[in-house]
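Worked problem 6 (solution included).
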Amino acid sequence: MTERTGDPFRDLADSSLNFLQRFGVDPADRSAIEDRIMIFEEEVRELTEAVREGTDLNHIGEEAADVIVTIITMCHSAGVDTEALIEQAYRVVAKNDAKTHETHIFKDGKIRRRKA
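Solution. The predicted structure is:
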C-alpha cells in the first residue's frame, strides 16, 4: 500500500505506478501507449456515463479517479514523469488564478479569453 504523503496527486501517481509494477508492467513502456490510450478512452466513457446518470456521487468520484490514474500511466508511457505532471498542474493553477472578468468571459459553456 502506498503511504500517504498529504499530496493526493503524488500519492495517486505513486500508487498507480506501483500497481503496474506489481503486475510486471513497466510504466515507462512506450510500446504500451496505444493500450493506455484505449484504457483511458474506456474510463472517460465510464465517467461520462456516470455523470449523465448523476444518481451515485461516489460512483462519479470513483470513475473520475480512474480517469486520473489512466492519465498518469499514459503520460508515463509517453515519457512524462510524476514530477513533470505535478509541475504542469501547478502551472495550470497559476494560469487559472490569473484569469479575471477583465481578461476572460464565460461563453458557450467555457471560460474564454476576451477579444482585444
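Discussion: The chain has a mean pLDDT of 93.
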